[in-house]
Write a structure and sequence with these properties.
Blueprint: E1 8-9, E2 26-34, H1 43-49, E3 50-59, H2 60-68, E4 76-82, E5 91-93, E6 106-113, E7 116-124, H3 126-132, H4 138-210, H5 217-248, E8 256-260, H6 261-271, H7 273-279, E9 283-287, E10 292-296, H8 297-314, E11 320-327, E12 330-337, H9 369-379, E13 383-389, E14 393-401
Parallel strand pairs: 9-11
Antiparallel strand pairs: 1-2, 2-3, 4-5, 4-7, 6-7, 8-10, 11-12, 12-14, 13-14
Helix pairs in contact: 4-5, 6-8, 8-9
Length: about 400
């Protein structure tokens, strides 16, 4: 039982719960219990992971009455024995009348119950002979099959419970695997800017100790800018991790206010000036005046920043076009690049957690930006649309409702 992981029946016992003068025979069903996080692939692992056993006692006469009910004139009677020895010491259930009686048909059948062999002895009763005659003999065989099925049901219920436990364990293992994969990526991504930041600060300390600020001012400013960039990147990664927790627990709150989307996007494009210069891209902005709606300004800034940042990352140094427009009762921000594009097979998964359409060997990131952006836009009543062709670029459209505009 411990080694197979399957339910197991005990030998014939008299239960300690018996208080009646005529004590019933009984048996126990044991089921092994293992640690939730244990692998159970082989005997050694099952032995190591064993926590204990749960069991259920059965009073045999009560069990038989529950299965077959009570009949004043049964058509067949049977005895049931634990093991192959058919005597009083091994009898689990007595149904055959004591003393001499006329027996026309009888059968002895071994059956397996939870890894233990029982012996079933069946006799035809006078009521059976009167009701069936010779043409109904096959019913005796059917009864034996049904009886066997009824006994097997006792252990099958236990097995179904164990199957459910195994399914839950597999699901938990998959969740742990996803967590471990995420932590590995997160650890790498968080370590990179921290290492760079440390080196920049150490270099600044050495320069300051060696010389006055005058001749080295330009170099110090450049290094401070790099350090600041790494701090900003680290802050963004940590914020993404916190957003994962908020979204998963349903705690993503939106502080809505009147927002001029045109001004907000213009501020973001201006803020990306240094990134645009390093990426070698030209960013153009075409916007209608005063596209105003009721949104969470900070979260909307996060969404546009994520999408524009991706366009710069994957834009391959080619022009990027940003457009802000009003369409009936909705606002649309479109960001189009001419970069590497996204394969059609990956379009359906780029908005999933920890998913990216490119390998992390060439592009950094946790694979959370688009998922968080999509969750924010959905919470705002909008959607993100994407069109892409490999080698021709991608166009992301952030569509938001104008309904509920806050008064100016």
């Amino acid at each position: 039982m411990r080694d197979t992981g399957l339910p197991s029946a005990s030998a014939r016992v008299t239960l300690v719960q018996e208080i009646d003068p005529e004590k019933q025979a009984g048996f126990l069903i044991y089921v092994p219990v293992y640690r939730d996080d244990a692998r159970l692939d082989d005997v050694a692992s099952r032995r190591s992971a064993l926590e204990g056993f749960v069991y259920s006692p059965f009073r045999m006469d009560d069990l038989m009455r529950g299965i077959f009910g009570t009949e004043t004139e049964p058509k067949v009677v049977f005895d049931l024995y634990d093991g192959s020895t058919m005597d009083a010491a091994h009898r689990l259930h007595a149904g055959v009348p004591a003393g001499p009686h006329d027996v026309r048909r009888s059968a002895t059948v071994p059956i397996e119950v939870a890894g233990r062999t029982w012996t079933l002895y069946v006799e035809s009763a006078p009521a059976f002979e009167a009701a069936t005659m010779e043409r109904h003999v096959p019913y005796l065989v059917v009864l034996g099959v049904l009886f066997n099925a009824a006994l097997v049901f006792v252990t099958r219920a236990q097995q179904r419970a164990r199957d459910d436990e195994r399914a839950a364990m597999l699901e938990a293992q998959q969740a742990v695997h996803l967590r471990d994969e995420f932590l590995a990526i997160a650890g790498h991504e968080l370590r990179t800017p921290l290492t760079a930041l440390r080196l920049q600060v150490e270099g600044l300390n050495r320069q300051v100790q060696k010389s006055a600020f005058g001749p080295l001012l330009e170099r110090l400013v450049e290094r401070l800018a790099k350090a600041e960039g790494n701090v900003i990147r680290l802050d963004g990664l940590v914020r993404e991790l916190l957003d994962v927790s908020r979204i998963a627990s349903g705690r993503l709150a939106l502080a809505k206010e009147s927002v001029d989307l045109t001004d907000l996007v213009a501020e973001i494009v201006d803020r990306f000036g240094e990134n645009v210069r390093r990426a070698g891209c030209a960013v153009s902005l075409t916007a209608e005046e005063h596209v105003v709606g009721c949104w969470d300004r900070g979260r909307l800034d996060q969404v546009v920043t994520n999408v524009l940042g991706n366009a710069l990352k994957y834009g391959a140094g080619k022009p990027i076009a940003v457009r802000v427009a009003r369409e009936d009762d909705r606002a649309r921000v479109t960001i189009a690049d001419r970069g590497i594009g996204i394969p059609p097979k990956d379009l359906g998964r780029i908005f999933a957690r920890f998913e990216r359409a490119v390998t992390d060997k060439h592009f950094g990131g946790l694979g959370l930006g688009l998922w968080i952006s999509d969750e924010i836009v959905r919470a705002s009543g909008g959607r993100i649309e994407v069109e892409s062709s490999v080698g021709e670029g991608s166009t992301f459209s952030i569509v938001l409702p104008l309904a509920g505009v806050a008064p100016a």
